Amino acid sequence: MIFAARDLGLGADAELRDRTQMQFLALLVRQGASRFVLKGGMAMRALYASVRLTKDVDFDCENSVSQSSMQAQMPKALAQAARLAGLSVIEVSQTKRADRSNRWRIRGTAAEGTAVNWEVEVSRRGLPPADFIETRAFEAPLDYRIPNFSVRVYDSAAMAGGKVNALLSDNRSVPRDVYDLSVLARHGADPTPLWLRCVPRETLEGKRDAVMAKIERIDFALANAELLPFLAPSVRDGFDARRWDEIRLTVAERVEKWIEQAIPRARTAKELNRDPDDADFAGR
């Protein structure tokens, strides 16, 4: 069950953003976006009814999706979703345009004057093998009045692999990666089958010792500023530095265990015919 922002005790602006995001996702699916795969916070809600809301909607897409089709499709879908959610003074702008990544921002105003803004990002960095992608029913909250639809998402192994990849990225220190990995671990996710298929042993060995150091840098000050405002108050109220340390330690131990389990069985870069510096933990 996916909870509405109102049920989670979050404010009107959070509910409007959440409803608009789901409207956009439903529209995109109805327009035939079968070559897009949902990931990130909205995928966590689809897979695990996560109580973490997101300020953006993230996709990976197949290489066959052209730049021109994205440029034509995305602004229209975003604007239409905003109108269906009851927003006015709608502005859609592209904030990033590159060969491997594109991002759009939507801004609008609700009837009572509440400002709503969020982003959608589409990555063209490739996809993991098809058997790590599944189609799942997405049931929006009844209050949102969005017909149920199905969406392509990563399975739990690929979701966990993608989150480990994000966590260990050199230019990223984001508390939601740690939080989402704690949810995935609690649900029994295990990325090692993906890694054994796609990730060279050298890549696994090269990142093994970086896990704890990276998680230690994502301290409670960051979590308080960037994660807690997107959690339900029932979760947020009991969230302090001690609780965050417990989550960080659990995630570090689990990620290290996944890597240690994969290394002895992983194939070498030569066997996979892959550059270990170009491979990532998302299986791409």
Which short descriptors sum up this protein?
two-stranded antiparallel sheet; alpha+beta; 284 residues; globular
Question: Helix share of residues?
Answer: 40-55%
In round numbers, the mean pLDDT is 90
Q: Strand order across the biggest sheet?
A: 1-2-5-4-3
Task: Bin the strand percentage.
Answer: 15-25%
Low-confidence spans: pLDDT under 50, at least 5 residues? none
Report how far the terminal alpha carbons are from each other. Answer: 30 Å
Order of helices and strands: HEHEHEEEEEHHHHHHHHH
Q: Helical region count? A: 12
Give the structural class.
Answer: alpha+beta
Shape: globular
Compute the gyration radius: what is it? 19 Å
Q: Let me know the largest β-sheet.
A: 5 strands, mixed
- SS elements, strand count: 7
Descriptive account of the structure:
- By secondary structure, the protein is of the alpha+beta class.
- 45% of the residues lie in helices and 18% in strands.
- It has 12 helices and 7 strands.
- The strands form 2 sheets. Strands 1-2-5-4-3 form a 5-stranded mixed beta sheet.
- Helix 5 crosses helix 11 and helix 7 packs antiparallel against helix 11.
- The radius of gyration is 19 Å and the shape is globular.
- The two termini are 30 Å apart.
- The model has no long low-confidence stretch (mean pLDDT 90).
